[in-house]
Design brief:
single chain, 238 residues, alpha/beta, 6-stranded mixed sheet, two-stranded antiparallel ribbon, 16% strand
């Protein structure tokens, strides 16, 4: 069954939602804490040229396949569009059930449903969002907001070329190779753009892919996000 959910609106992330739901959870004294993963899809023009959309769809399907109960995977797109959007996050939710067979069966249903949920997601994004500009930092902050109430394991899987151009941090500029420049830009980010990501594993796929930058800049790009993860207390998995 497909339903919709609402998220806090913010002038930094655009999301879409078609929630893949399952049967109601069966309570148990042995129920573990819920885990959560947010897959962030770069919807900028540069990311579109390097087929980040397909990579994000693959990562969403992979994350759904790795789900353990109770847990959920949220797929969101981001760029720099200001204001509300009719697009909302895609959410695949696997509730707890003490019967492992039941959980396995529901997980198979989610995996089968995932591709069909992703298609209208990207259609909405293409129709209702601007592809100009990329607010990667804002996208991460929005993902952190989604995960804030998750008591168990938390992960953000970011699919992007890494070319952020918000908050004075043009991460694909030649200056990204300079450690002092990176440090100053991260320090200057607004407080709300540096959420506490303690307990969150941050993974980034696609850094430098399709971007018109040299190998030294790619290494600087990787260093920027590693240092951003350190500043926000995330566990950086590359």
């Amino acid at each position: 069954m497909i339903s919709r959910r609402n998220l806090r609106r913010a002038p930094l992330a655009v999301a879409i939602g078609l929630a893949i739901t399952t049967i109601a959870a069966c309570g148990s004294d042995n129920e573990p804490p819920e885990n959560g993963t947010v897959v962030l899809a770069d919807a900028s023009a540069s990311a579109e040229q390097s087929e980040m959309k397909n990579k994000a769809a693959e990562e969403f399907a992979s994350a759904v396949g790795r789900l353990t109960a109770p847990g959920k995977v949220t797929l969101m797109a981001f760029n720099t569009q200001v204001g509300s959007s009719p697009c909302e996050p895609v959410v695949a939710s696997l509730p707890w059930d003490p019967n492992s067979t039941t959980v396995d069966d529901k997980k198979k249903e989610l995996v089968a449903q995932a591709p069909a949920a992703v298609a209208p997601y990207f259609e909405c994004v293409e129709t209702h969002t601007s592809v100009q500009g990329t607010d990667i930092i804002g996208g991460i902050a929005e993902a952190a907001d989604v995960l804030r109430s998750t008591p168990g394991d938390k992960a953000i899987s970011l699919v992007t070329d890494g070319c952020n151009n918000s908050y004075g941090a043009n991460t694909c500029a030649i200056e990204v190779t300079d450690p002092a420049w990176r440090s100053a830009r991260i320090e200057a980010l607004p407080t709300e753009m540096k959420p506490d990501l303690t307990g969150v594993t941050l993974t980034i796929t696609g850094l430098g892919r399709g971007a018109d930058i040299n190998s030294a800049q790619v290494q600087g790009l990787k260093a920027f996000f590693r240092e951003y993860a350190e500043a926000t207390h995330a566990t950086y998995a590359g």
